[in-house]
Structures are given as C-alpha cells and as structure tokens.
Design goal:
CATH class of the largest domain: Alpha Beta
Order of helices and strands: EHHHHHHEHEHEHEEH
Number of strands: 6
Structural class: alpha/beta
Largest sheet: 6 strands, parallel
CATH topology of the largest domain: Rossmann fold
C-alpha cells in the first residue's frame, strides 16, 4: 500500500514556490496592466526562472534566486514587448508576498498537532523565503526554512536535499518531501526521500527512473497519507 511507504516518516519537508506559494499570484495582482498577455507573461516568467537555475548550476555560475527571478522577469517582459520599469519593480515586490495556497496553513497545523517536524527546502534566497513565510503567517508552524544559498547551487543537485537531512537530523527515508514540481519530486525520490508529489497542475510524470511514492491533488491529502485522520 502507498501509505506503508510513509509509515516511518519523522519530518515533512516542503518545496516553497508552486507548492506552498502560488507563483502566479504576483502577475495576478497586475493583470489589468498586462492585459491579454498577463497569463502568458506569468508562465514564461516561471519557465525562464527554472531554466536559469538549471543553466547556472550546470555552468557553475551561481547567483541567488532573487537575481534569477529578476533576470527571468526581464526576459518575459521583453518577450511580450512590455517596457514599464515601474511595473517591473512592482512585480518583483509582489514576488516577496506570494499568496499561499488555501490549504497550506491548516495542513501545517494538522501536522504539528500530530508532532510532525516541518520545514521548507527551497531555491529561494533567505530574504525571499522569510518574506513569503511572514506574509503567509506560517512561521510558527515551521521548524526550519532551508535555502539553497547554504550550499551555493540550485535543485536538483543532491547537496540541496542533503541540507534537510543534516539540519533535521533524520535519514532521507524518514522525510516526506512535498513538491508540485515533477522534476523536484523525482530528484528527491532519487536522493532517497519518501515523496508526495502535489500535482496541482496536472503534469505528466517525468520519464526518469525514480518516481514519487504518492501523487496528491492538493496538500489536504497529506495528513491522511501519513495516517493522521
């Protein structure tokens, strides 16, 4: 049974962007100013943001996620011929206060009520994560907020997932890792974590050897998976 795969879990570790926080909520606040291209700009912004993390890691040219996010936004705005410095600045500031998904707070509360340790493991820089966590009001529901800046390389490098093992003091197989990004879920599974893929966006499974242990539609399904009714 799938639930058996999670029977020895001692900590729940969450990806941040797209899993806890809605990455498209930044553009969502400025849709009238972007007009008909708003959704396309948001989608391209996210795509280039991820691509730049992978490229920089492969090229050994690390910068923090704030720089990557700005570079990706510049690419997306230019692609849709948007030249508005004020709007650009407002979009970047909006990324510091992304809307949490509606179930996030209640799920974290349920996990803590059952004695589960909780953490974020993210590409985000510390200041970005601090702002997002504070804005969502979930700081007291997390035992740790871990940034790739501590190892100087982005996911899916194994050193990132090792951060959670080292900081929480539990084995990889005792961690349930949640991500909405299929590639991130596969990387964590490859590392040896138990993985609950929160497939919010109806993605296809990656064609790689390791696969998530469970697939969820929202994080509401996580507590029952762990045996918490």
């Amino acid at each position: 049974m799938t639930q058996d795969r999670f029977s020895n879990v001692k900590a729940c570790v969450f990806d941040a962007y797209g899993t806890l926080f809605d990455v498209h909520s930044a553009v969502g606040r400025h849709k009238p100013r972007l007009g008909k291209d708003a959704d396309a700009v948001s989608a391209l912004w996210r795509t280039k943001q991820l691509e730049y993390t992978w490229l920089r890691s492969l090229m050994s040219r690390h910068v923090d996620f704030w720089q990557v996010t700005g570079d990706a936004l510049d690419y997306a705005l230019d692609a849709y011929d948007v030249h508005d410095p004020a709007l650009r600045d407002e979009l970047m500031q909006a990324y510091l206060s992304l809307a949490p998904y509606p179930e996030v707070r209640s799920v974290l509360q349920r996990l803590k009520q059952h004695g589960m340790r909780t953490a974020i493991l993210s590409n985000g820089s510390p200041n970005m994560l601090e702002a997002a966590v504070a804005g969502a009001g979930i700081a007291k529901l997390l035992d740790a907020v871990l940034s790739v800046e501590d190892v100087g390389i982005f996911k899916p490098d194994p050193r990132v997932y090792q951060l959670a093992v080292d900081r929480l003091g539990v084995a990889a197989g005792e961690i349930s890792f949640q991500s909405s990004n299929a590639w991130d879920a596969v990387a964590a599974a490859t590392f040896g974590m138990r993985v609950a893929w929160c497939n919010r966006f109806g993605q296809r499974r990656e064609r790689l050897t390791a696969q998530p242990d469970a697939e969820l539609k929202t994080l509401d399904e996580l507590p029952p998976l762990l045996g918490f009714e």
